[in-house]
Design goal:
- Chain B: InterPro entries: CPA3_antiporter_subunitC, NUOK/Mnh_C1-like.
- Chain B: The chain crosses the membrane at residues 6-23, 30-49, 69-93.
- The complex is a heterodimer of chains A (984) and B (165).
- Chain A is mainly α and 984 residues long.
- The two termini of chain A are 76 Å apart.
- Residues 752-759 and 931-984 of chain A have low confidence and may be disordered.
- Chain B is mostly helical and 165 residues long.
- Chain B folds into two domains: 5-99; 108-165, no CATH class.
- In chain B, helix 1 packs antiparallel against helix 2 and helix 2 (27-48) runs antiparallel to helix 3 (68-99).
- The radius of gyration of chain B is 32 Å and the shape is elongated.
- Chains A and B meet through helix 8, helix 25, helix 26, helix 27 and helix 28 of A and helix 1, helix 2, helix 3 and helix 4 of B.
Chain lengths: 984, 165
Amino acid sequence: MLMLLALHLVAAALAPALVHRWGRWAFLPLAVAPASAFGWALGYADTVREGRAVVEAYPWVPELGIELALRVTTLSWLLVLLVGGIGALVLVYCVRYFDADEPGLGRFAAVFVGFAGAMLGVVLADDLLLLYVCWELTSVFSYLLIAHHPEQQASRRSANQALLVTTLGGLVMLVGFVMLGQHAGTYRWSEIAARPPPPGGYLGIAVVLILVGALSKSAIFPTSFWLPAAMAAPTPVSAYLHAAAMVKAGVYLVALLAPVYAEVGPWRPVIYVTGIVTVLAGGWAALRQVDLKLLLAYGTVSQLGLLVVLVGAGTPDAALAGVAMLVGHALFKAALFLVVGIVDRRAGTRDLTVLSGLWRRMPLVCATAVLAAASMAGVTPLLGFVAKEAILGAFRGDPPLLAALLLGAVLTTAYSARFVRGAFAGRPPPREATPTRPVETVLLAPAALLAVAGLVLGVLAGPVGETLAGYPRLFGSIAHPLTFVPASGLVLGLSALAQVGGLLLFALRTPVGAVQARLRAPFDGDTAYQVLSRGFDRFAVALTGATQRGSLPQYLGVILFALVLVLGGALLRGPWPDRIGVSGNPLQAVVGVVLGVAAVLTVRARSRLTAVILAGVTGYCTAVLFVLHGAPDLALAQFLAETVTIVIFVLVLRRLPARFSVRPLRRSRWTRLALGVAVGAVVTAMAVAATGARRAPPVSAEFPGPALSFGYGRNVVNVTLVDIRAWDTMGEIAVLVVAATGVASLIFQRRRGPDRPRRDDLPPPPGAERVWLRAGPTLRTRRRSIVFEVVVRLIFHTVVLFSIFLLFSGHNAPGGGFVGGLVAGLALAVRYLAGGRHELDQAAPVDAGMLLGVGLFVSVGTGLLAMSTGGEVLRSSLLEPELPLVGELHLVTSIFFDIGVYLVVVGLVLDILRSLGAEVDRQIEVEDEPGTGLRTDRPAGPARQAAAGAGAPDAPGGTDSESAGTDSESAGTDSGVAGTEGRR
Amino acid sequence: MTPNLVLALVVGVLFGSGVILLLERSLSRVLIGIILLTNGTNLLLLLGGRPGEAPILGVTPDAEMSDPLAQAMVLTAIVITLGLTAFLLAMAYRSWQLTGHDEVRDDPEDRRIVRRAKRHELAGPDDNAGEGPWPPPGGVVGADPEQVDPEPAPRRLDDEPGGQA
């Protein structure tokens, strides 16, 4: 059985290639897959007749207890025959149905065969979850097949509708399966059926949920609307999916469950009410269709309702009638659909008000249609008649149901007659016969074969009934075996009544049509679907509109509000520390007050620079607090980082307007204020509660010893960074590299290639080689301070040396890679501030990206090296090489890691200076040139002097470091205005 | 561990001021708010470890050392903040270059949906899961919705006379 499924899968995978090679003839080899399923099933006919099952099981998801369990009993055997046989015939039919140049034929073939495989999976599956998977696969394939003409709106809409209805039903069904499976402790249906778990309150719910899935798949009221709409699919799809196979999946599931659950409370009411409504409404709607395909579609809806009633009734006779009807319906409805396809393709229309005299032009097609329609109407000795007799016999004891089913039979006869007359009959003289093209044998043979099968099996009703008896016997013993000989008495009378009534209804079609025109259904499934889907769309828009306002402050506000609410709520419940110390150190309080005042003033500041400097004050105060807390490394890093931050700010602020823009947010000001105060209060409370709640000894209490014995360092913080928690540091320097790259790519738009800032590739200014101070070309004389430049030049190397000292001593004293890198970066920043960008290039004649890359490489390399020598990644080891002249050296490998960190930090600062400093300088110069735009690619060499002379702000800083702030504030004002004007 | 009220208050003030600035529209103000917030966060992290003398072996006895783990975490955070500041400033600068200001504007796409929601419209001009309105504006064949020809006509036998009545 697994081989059959695999065969379908392979065929589906090969289909596009085959179609590409052989065109539509590729459908013939593809038909082998379903045909082999048919043949396989025939081979097991004896086994099934003896009432035995064919079982295969393979482990699939053992963790979840899901098996690829396949099992064939009478019911599933019958469906394998139908799915395989009709599938093969329809594939043969496809050879001539499609034009040779039909677009998307390869995809169609693959999906069609894939569907046949999935459908086979549904009927073979014994595991309910496997059944569910195949079930949903058929829905998806059906979606793809209905949307065969994706360029047509009707096609897409119908496909969507069918998919939504059937998959939603499937999901509901899955819930029911899970409920059943969990209570039974197994998902194997054969085991559940053999030992049904004790009934309980859950059972009714589970059964109803499963029925929802089954009924929606079979287009039973109130979900019938999707099936007529699905007629947008090509006719082979309608014949196979929407008559023989997929819609039968729901019937199959009802039939599968009925022997065990027909007695459960809600089962029969649900089955009978929805089934009967579907029978009558479908038949009534079929009577007024003018499109032959829609007529059949409504007829199918009606008969699916009938099938559900039969197999759901839970009595042996009804079940026997049900399986007979299942076969009969599959045969005649598939045949009729194929006939409609022939008429459509060869006569050009399927509108029964247009068609005329086809019986003369295509007599064989007409004969096939008459045979199939007679079976549908229940004329003896066809299989449809056999089934109808069995139905009337089975429900003889239930007059209301019998009456309803009889009415359904009347309607069936009427629309069968309407179909045959509409498609093939001639019209009164002025109308001529519809012109047609010849019908090929390959096109007709499948339909004819199906119609003839209906006749043969009708005559063989007795043996057929015996073969299929295994299923109805699950309910009890059969009272009325199948037969094509008309019974006597009541059943004969009712049967005749149905035929006469149907023909009468058809004869009276004009008055009936008038009634139908006035009588509209009070409830329309399609309208309900539209209202529902519209409602969902509306709800989605309203919900998105209500939550996604697109405003950053609003989003942040919500997050912070949640913080206050959740954290504050948790804090209210305590526990609170018994003792709260005010402060260990009076200096702490003083610094704290200064910091607090600076923070509040930062909020009130209206000028950008003031705000930046006040924020810097808070940063420096934080550094002092670090010192008082006993964290000299932190204090160093904080001091240096804060200084670099202020430099960066000043570099950018010279371009931005001096003051913050006027805020139109006055109304929300109090909200922001309140939120800020609330967050502050909650965080204060949290700080107190969290530190007070700390009882366990910190993990770091163990650090000092190993720091020396394993990390070979005395500065525990540094050893933590480069050894104990070196992975954190590694990730962090990677973030720095990313941030630096981001800065560069935001500012540098000169090159289309690598965005990494390189050394300024402008030709060096004339005579640059001999110039000691490089500020000349870029700084105005008024702004230059020779003393500053010279002093910076003189101390630069000392500072860099000091940074290296910090780097190496950091292992045993405050310092380390971060601090050293920041010091070196500051040295570069000062060089740039004093002498402009050419001075910077001279100070650091390397590419910032190179520094970043080498730094990261060195750090990672150190870690990997440790691994290659047999240790763990990033593990330190002590090297004590003996060097000539120097003597013994005490070298810890983690110093190389720290060198990498150092290089990355220097690279970051250099990158920032090159981007926000040098590149922005260059952009200002280009901008101030007459007739050039903001992003001119032309180097600004020759005009530089003129621009400088015209009074452009050019120096990032000022003439001396003390007044750098004020100076660049005014510069910022100038350039901000100039920049804005330049753009307008 | 005994909580330190002064430091806790300082953290609170930094958070409060940071949040107020964070809720502004100007990107440089938001950035300054972030700086205040990170200063506050760094202090908060440090508060989690015990205070003491510098954790350097040989200088400070083990028992008097401040918590080195919190310090290592804060140290990396400080440098990360530097990178973040530079990145956001570059963004502010770029925003100024392109729009003439550094305000964070509302997302226009989101605003469009908000407007649609107010007007009780659907997500797109269309309906039916991305399809046009149904039935289409031009009307479908015939007035009866059940009589729609779901397989429209383009591939009918247009080349043959009398194919269509």
